[in-house]
Each structure stands twice: as structure tokens, then as C-alpha cells.
Design a protein that fits this description.
Distance between the termini: 66 Å
Radius of gyration: 20 Å
Shape: globular
Oligomer: single chain
Strand order of the largest sheet: 8-5-9-11
Helix content: 25-40%
Number of helices: 11
Number of strands: 11
Order of helices and strands: HEHHEHEHEEHEHEHEHEEHHE
């Protein structure tokens, strides 16, 4: 009986995969990435066993979360836009979690300035206006290299207040996340709005990252995502999730790109032409 009990308990044992919790109520995309990770884990359960993605009991800003992942503390997986440094220090699972659409940037703007942004000619001088971005975001470096004046903040939520209080002029966000973030913020203020009539674009994939030596988990997640692409459930997930369902048809976004920037932080061997993984403008 004791041996049978031990066997039974082990049969139902579940691996815990630690992830961050949402940074704030405006962090609308958290559920997309955590749910996508869970599906990849579920796809591979027959080979690796059951696993459950579980958020930390406390908030980790991106810089702290990245350091914690490197040290093997608090979290086991983290989703981030890639960079040369990140791919050197962490294990990048090189499957874009949004088919490369993270690099299509609409703008959170002050509603009072919507007319300015709707005039196409003004986009020729867009880099004369300041941008709010995260302290540790690769976007900040990309936009600065592209000639924009970037004002950095360590706290995600504070950038909404900075924009409202004229400490910056716009807050570029991925087309998947901006509308939901503005909607969440509108519960407290109606001064900000979402603009995606024209877009800024740079090749910028969002990947799952793990600690370098966490080989089994890295391989498991990669295998699960590839299985989802093969059987169509990856695209179905995007079409049905509230954060991404408004993106379809995907062909509309390359046509809206008005400003293209280089991403010098993208590893040279990243194949952005592979349409299995990427949607790219001509």
C-alpha cells in the first residue's frame, strides 16, 4: 500500500514552470503569452509530463525579471523582445510569438493631438517629438538609433502618466497590445487614445527565453510551439485570443507602415523572410 500510494502521487505530480505576474492592470498582453506557453506545455505533456505555468506572487519589472532568469531565481521562462545581448546570455527559443508583429508599432497618443498624427505629412517630422519607452526595452535603443528622442522609465504604468502630463509626446506599442492597454487605462482617464492608421516598423520578434542550462525546458517549449504551428493551433490561438483577434487579416499591417527602422540588435542569422514564422512588409 505505501508503495502504491507513492506511485499514485508521483503519477499526478505536476511540474511548475514559474513566470512573471502582470506588471499592472494595463498589462493586457500577459494572458496571451502565459496562455500560449501553457498550450505549448500541454502539447508536450505526453513526452515530458504534465506542467503548469505559475506566476510569481510579486511583480518583477523587466530588468529585474531578466536578471532573475539569468540567475535561475523566481522565474523559469520569460517572454521578451530579443537582442544580441539577450541571446548571448539566455537561451532564446527562436519562434516569434506574434509572427513578428511586435515590430509593428502603433502609438498611444493624447486624444487632443489625434489630428496631428492623422496627417501623413507630419510623419516625415515625427522624430522631432519625444517617445516614452521602458528603461530596459530593446525598443528604446532601436528608436534612439532611428533618430527619436526617447524618455525612459523603469515602471510600465508611469508611462501613461508621463504622456498625459506632456513629459513625452507618444508611447509606441505593439499593434497587438496597444488597444487593450488604452481600454484598460480609459477606466481611469479618457485623455489617451490608440492610433494605428500609420505605423512605425522594425524587425523585432518576441521570444520565450529560458536560462542557458535549462535545456530540457527549452527543448520542450520549442517542440510544443512547432507542434502548434504544424497542426494549425498556433494560428487558431492568435485568431481567438482577445489580444490578437483584432489583428486579422494579417496582410493589412504591412500596408500601413510609414516609418521603417533598422534593428542593429537583431542577430545577423535571424531569418525574417521565413513566412512560417514571420509577417514582414515588402
Amino acid at each position: 500500500m505505501p508503495l502504491l500510494l507513492i506511485f499514485t502521487l508521483e503519477s499526478f505530480a505536476q511540474e511548475i514552470v514559474r513566470i512573471i505576474r502582470p506588471q499592472s492592470e494595463e498589462d493586457a498582453s500577459h494572458h496571451y503569452f502565459s496562455a500560449l506557453l501553457q498550450q505549448a506545455l500541454d502539447k508536450t505533456a505526453a513526452e515530458y509530463g504534465s506542467a503548469q505555468a505559475q506566476p510569481t506572487p510579486f511583480v518583477l519589472e523587466q530588468g529585474r525579471a531578466e536578471q532573475a532568469l539569468k540567475a535561475g531565481q523566481h522565474i523559469d521562462v520569460y517572454w521578451m523582445g530579443t537582442s544580441l545581448e539577450r541571446e548571448q546570455e539566455l537561451a532564446a527559443i527562436r519562434i516569434p510569438l506574434l509572427k513578428g508583429l511586435l515590430g509593428y508599432r502603433g502609438l498611444i497618443i493624447r486624444e487632443s493631438e489625434r489630428l496631428f498624427f492623422s496627417k501623413r505629412v507630419n510623419w516625415l517630422r515625427l522624430n522631432l517629438r519625444s517617445i516614452c519607452q521602458g528603461m530596459h526595452w530593446p525598443d528604446s535603443d532601436i528608436l534612439e538609433s532611428g533618430g527619436f528622442r526617447v524618455i525612459r522609465s523603469a515602471r510600465f504604468k508611469s508611462m501613461f502618466a508621463m504622456l498625459e502630463n506632456f513629459r513625452c509626446d507618444m508611447f509606441p506599442r505593439g499593434i497587438h497590445e496597444g488597444p487593450a492597454e488604452v481600454s484598460a487605462h480609459s477606466q481611469n482617464s479618457d485623455k489617451l487614445g490608440w492610433f494605428d492608421q500609420y505605423l512605425i516598423y522594425y524587425p523585432f520578434p518576441m521570444y520565450f527565453f529560458t536560462k542557458k542550462d535549462n535545456v530540457v525546458l527549452t527543448d520542450r517549449i520549442a517542440k510544443g510551439l512547432e507542434m502548434m504551428i504544424d497542426d494549425g493551433s498556433f494560428m487558431t490561438f492568435m485568431q481567438q485570443h482577445p489580444v490578437t483577434q483584432h489583428l486579422f487579416p494579417l496582410a493589412q499591417w504591412p500596408e500601413r507602415v510609414e516609418v521603417k527602422l533598422l534593428n542593429t540588435q537583431l542577430p545577423a542569422d535571424t531569418d525574417i523572410t521565413d513566412r512560417r514564422y514571420w509577417v514582414v512588409p515588402e
